[in-house]
C-alpha cells in the first residue's frame, strides 16, 4: 500500500540536504529498474542522480532518502561523491522515459501516447514503486528543432501496468519534456546532463535545441561527445552551429574532422566566419594562435568608456573575454591595426563614462606572439594576474586573445571532466 506519491517532474531540481541540514546538491533524475530481478514486484526507483558542486552527478541510493517533502529531499548518512555511472538494467526517468512513445491500454482499446511524467509511490516497507504514468494521447512526429513548448492533446494519468513500451527505446523521441525539466540549467550544466545521456538521446536533444543553445552546449562537452553530435547533424545545420560557436571552439572541433568534411562545412559557412577559422587552423593547437579567440572586445581610442561597458555587458560575452578591452588603430576586427594597449574591466568601472578609452590605456601588458607556447602563456597570465591576454603579430596588429579557460582545457588531462576532484569519496 502506498503512503506517499511523488511525480518525477516535480522532484527534479529539488535541493538535497544531509542530516545536518547542509545542502548536498540538486535532484536531476531518478534512476529506476523496469525489468529483471530487481523489478520482480514491478518497476521501482533505486536512487537519485544528484548534481553536486563541480557540475558532477553522483548516485544517492533511495535507501538513503528519509524524506521527500516541502520542496526538499533529506538524506541520511554519507553520500558517495564518485561520479554517477549508469549500469546495465538502469533507466533514467527524465533522460530516457520522458517523451517516450508508448501504447496505453484501456480495456480492449489500445492507443498511442507520449510519456510526460511518471509517479512513484513510497510503500510501507520504504520501497519506491513506479505506479502511474502521465501521458499525452497521440504519436509524436520526428523530433523538431526548438520544440520546447508544452504540446497539445488529451492527457491521462494511467496505471503503469496499462502502458506498453516503457522498456523499448523504439522510434526517435522528441525532447520537449526533458528540456522543460532542465530549463533552469545554464549551458555548462545542461552539457553535463547531455553528457550523461545515451548517444541516441544526445542526438535527439541536439535536434530539439535551438542553434545558439546547442552551440553553447557543444563548447562545454568533451571532444568525443561534441564530435558525435556534430556528425549526426545535417551538414547545413552543422555549419550554422559552427558559426554560432566561439571561433576557437569551432576550430578545435573542425580539426578533429576529416579534411574533406572540414572543407565542406567551411564552404557552407559565412565567408567572414570561415576566414577566421581557416586562420586559426594554420596554428598549432598548443600555441597562442591555436588557443586564441579571434573575437575579443576591440575599440578605437576615441570610443567612450560607456561604449566599452556596453560591449562587455552583453549576455553572450564570456566573462574571461569581457575582462579586457583592447584598443587598436583601424580596422577594429582581427587582424586589426596596431595594438595601442588594453584596459581591465575594473578600471573601466572606476572612470567617468564619457571619458575616451584611449586616455586610460594600460601599455604594460605585452602581447604574446601566435607561436607562443603554453608555458609562455601561463607565465604571462600569472605575471599580470590576468584571465585574458592579447596575441599580436610582429607588426603589432592584434590577432586575438587567449583566455584562461582555454589554457586550462589544454593543461588539464583529457578526462578531467570525468575525474573526481575530491580527495574523499564520501561527504
Automatic annotation (TrEMBL):
One of its GO terms (molecular function) is magnesium ion transmembrane transporter activity. GO terms for cellular component: membrane. SUPFAM superfamilies: CBS-domain pair (SSF54631), MgtE N-terminal domain-like (SSF158791), PRC-barrel domain (SSF50346). The keyword Disulfide bond does not apply. Keywords: CBS domain. Residues 292-359, 361-419 form the CBS domain. CDD domains: CBS_pair_Mg_transporter (cd04606). This is Mg/Co/Ni transporter MgtE.
Amino acid at each position: 500500500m502506498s503512503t506517499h506519491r511523488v511525480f518525477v517532474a516535480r522532484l527534479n531540481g529539488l535541493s538535497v540536504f544531509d542530516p545536518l541540514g547542509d545542502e548536498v546538491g540538486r535532484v536531476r533524475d531518478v534512476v529506476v529498474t523496469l525489468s529483471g530481478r530487481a523489478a520482480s514486484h514491478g518497476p521501482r526507483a533505486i536512487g537519485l542522480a544528484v548534481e553536486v558542486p563541480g557540475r558532477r552527478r553522483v548516485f544517492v541510493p533511495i535507501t538513503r532518502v528519509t524524506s521527500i517533502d516541502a520542496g526538499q529531499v533529506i538524506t541520511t548518512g554519507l553520500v558517495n561523491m564518485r561520479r554517477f555511472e549508469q549500469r546495465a538494467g538502469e533507466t533514467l526517468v527524465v533522460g530516457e522515459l520522458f517523451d517516450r512513445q508508448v501504447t496505453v491500454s484501456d480495456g480492449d482499446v489500445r492507443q498511442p501516447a507520449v510519456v510526460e511524467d511518471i509517479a512513484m509511490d513510497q510503500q510501507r516497507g520504504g520501497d519506491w514503486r513506479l505506479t502511474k504514468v502521465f501521458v499525452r494521447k497521440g504519436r509524436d512526429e520526428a523530433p523538431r528543432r526548438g520544440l520546447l513548448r508544452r504540446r497539445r492533446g488529451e492527457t491521462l494519468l494511467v496505471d503503469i501496468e496499462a502502458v506498453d513500451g516503457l522498456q523499448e527505446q523504439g522510434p526517435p523521441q522528441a525532447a520537449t519534456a526533458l528540456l522543460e525539466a532542465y530549463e533552469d540549467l545554464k549551458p555548462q550544466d545542461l552539457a553535463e546532463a547531455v553528457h550523461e545521456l545515451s548517444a541516441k538521446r544526445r542526438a535527439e536533444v541536439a535536434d530539439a535545441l535551438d542553434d545558439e543553445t546547442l552551440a553553447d552546449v557543444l563548447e562545454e562537452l568533451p571532444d568525443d561527445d561534441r564530435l558525435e553530435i556534430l556528425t549526426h547533424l545535417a551538414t547545413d545545420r552543422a555549419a550554422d552551429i559552427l558559426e554560432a560557436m566561439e571561433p576557437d571552439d569551432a576550430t578545435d572541433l573542425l580539426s578533429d574532422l576529416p579534411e574533406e568534411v572540414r572543407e565542406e562545412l567551411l564552404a557552407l559557412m559565412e565567408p567572414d566566419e570561415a576566414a577566421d577559422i581557416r586562420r586559426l587552423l594554420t596554428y598549432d593547437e598548443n600555441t597562442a594562435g591555436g588557443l586564441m579567440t579571434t573575437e575579443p572586445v576591440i575599440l578605437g581610442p576615441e570610443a567612450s568608456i560607456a561604449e566599452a561597458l556596453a560591449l562587455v555587458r552583453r549576455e553572450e560575452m564570456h566573462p574571461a573575454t569581457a575582462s579586457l578591452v583592447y584598443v587598436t588603430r583601424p580596422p577594429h576586427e582581427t587582424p586589426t591595426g596596431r595594438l595601442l594597449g588594453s584596459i581591465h574591466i575594473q578600471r573601466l568601472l572606476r572612470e567617468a563614462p564619457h571619458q575616451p578609452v584611449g586616455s586610460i590605456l594600460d601599455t604594460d601588458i605585452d602581447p604574446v606572439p601566435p607561436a607562443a607556447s603554453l608555458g609562455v602563456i601561463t607565465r604571462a597570465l600569472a605575471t599580470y594576474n590576468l584571465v585574458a591576454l592579447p596575441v599580436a603579430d610582429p607588426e603589432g596588429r592584434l590577432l586575438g586573445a587567449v583566455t584562461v579557460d582555454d589554457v586550462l582545457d589544454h593543461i588539464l588531462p583529457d578526462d578531467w571532466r570525468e575525474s573526481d576532484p575530491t580527495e574523499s569519496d564520501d561527504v
